[in-house]
Amino acid sequence: MNLGRASILLGAGTVVSRLTGFLRTVVLVSAIGATTEAGNAFAIANQLPNNIYAVIQAGLLTAVLVPQIVRAARHPDGGSAFVSKILTLGTLVLLGITALAVVLAPWLVTLYAPEFPPHQQALATAFAYWCMPQILFYGLYSLLGETLNARRVFGPFTWAPIINNVVSIGGFAAFIALFGLTGAVENWTPTMVALLAGTATLGIAIQAVILVFFWKKTGLSVRPDFQWRGIGLRHIGRLAGWTFLMVIAGQLAGLVQSRILSEVNREFAGVFVSQNAWLLFMLPYSIIAVSIGTPYFTQLSEHAAAGRHEALRTDIATSLRTVGLFIVAATAALAAAAVPASRIFTNSAAEADDAALVLLCYLAGLLPLSVLFIVQRTFYIYNDTRTPFFFTLVQGALVVVTALIASWTLPVEFLAAGIALGQSFAGIVQMVLAIILLRRKLGGLRVLSWLPAFGRYVVAAIPAGLAGWAVFRLLGGEEGWTVSSELFGALGAAVIGTASLMVYLGVLALLRAPELGPALSMVKRFLPGQR
Questions:
Q1: Please, what is the end-to-end C-alpha distance for the chain in angstroms?
Q2: What are phi and psi for residue 188, nearest 5 degrees?
Q3: At residue 59, does pLDDT exceed 70?
Q4: pLDDT in tens, 60-79
Q5: Whole-model pTM?
Q6: CA 184 – CA 116 distance, rounded (Å)
Q7: H-helix or E-strand spanning residue 34
Q8: Which of 175, 236, 337, 436 is the most buried (most CB within 10 A)?
Q9: Would you call 223 exposed, middle or buried from its count of C-beta atoms within 10 A (0-12, 13-18, 19+)?
Q10: Domain spans of the chain?
Q11: Residue of 129 and 291 predicted with greater confidence
């Protein structure tokens, strides 16, 4: 599968996955509220397995597994023995981590939300017991999915979460039908907890199992294999060790943010609102940066393994220009439509205003995060996980410092926004450090081939964002129909975003941006009948 088709397949799957994910969150907010005690309790409990999954996914699998499987493909058996051993070892490790997390659930809830009152901590702990098994299924999903990606079977890993979202939507809708909106922590029964949190875990389990049905496409024959000697565990462990420390540093920074946000129990933007703003923020990142960058990551690994370093530098520059064009456009459109978009995950226009400020602060870091996606994985390709640890350590330290400054200086209603802005600032510094270090490592990064392009994108984004904001005001602004309901919020965001995108493309055309033609060709492939 070529890079263009792979990116489109991933992009299409991500669009559908994110849209169903949005609907999932809308139904969840309708069940437990966005700024309620129950909503924040579930947000903490459901985030715990995600935090541990982040260590497994970003820290061990993406950094280590894909390059190693690409190299193992040169073995006489195509890598079947290596993958069998890795899957066996990984499953056992996941089972151990999951069991330990279940036992530690009460202490983890207290660690992440120390400011919750006792009754809210008790509800969060009850949710956590049901949510912790997600660690096993998230890990299996990553093990299987990253192996599929390494074998150039890109689609299932991206499309499987749709099944998860459908299952969750059904379960949450059943909860609403049986119990209605239940934002207060009082009167929660074991049945209510089991239905809500159990549904979330069931969706993740099915998401992992569905990948098994696509395994034949890898061409690998796997079986349980406990003979781990000789597969390079020491080498893999050394690579994973630095990456593990890197992700732990990020999780510690997130822990500080969570502990501070636990002060906001109700009424203002807190943990749940921040998570939903991050969900909106991650939409363009997932559709664009991950969809374009993931196929490139496999190809870059092949270039590095074959010693084609010049081709690798060319592909890095091309991927940065392509990702940058779309990401800057998405930033302008989402910034202009921040209030209607936030209304999708809130229960009122006033809540949408507060959530929109959090979203805007996150958006300042969208382009840096997308660039970092490509730059950081290039280090992994060269088996360098040590350098990313150090520039991520700087980022984590800045996240902690800015979060503490926000907690000391900002009133509670602006606390989530201040933390989000600090996150973006830390990401910008991290990106700059990563580029400098990678340029030094590769003896050049063709900066002059993509940095001026970024300048053109930003020039086009300014009038595009202003045009979208003008449309929002013409539609009534904070008092208009675009914030009157979740559905109208989605429709309003689409209208405003479309206006921003049209202006963005028009300005790039006036600037005669050479990247515009290839980008439009890529977009056309999404249209029916196009290949």
A1: 12
A2: -75, 130
A3: no
A4: 555 455 556 666 666 666 66
A5: 0.77
A6: 13
A7: none
A8: 337
A9: exposed
A10: 1-219+227-231, 266-526
A11: 129
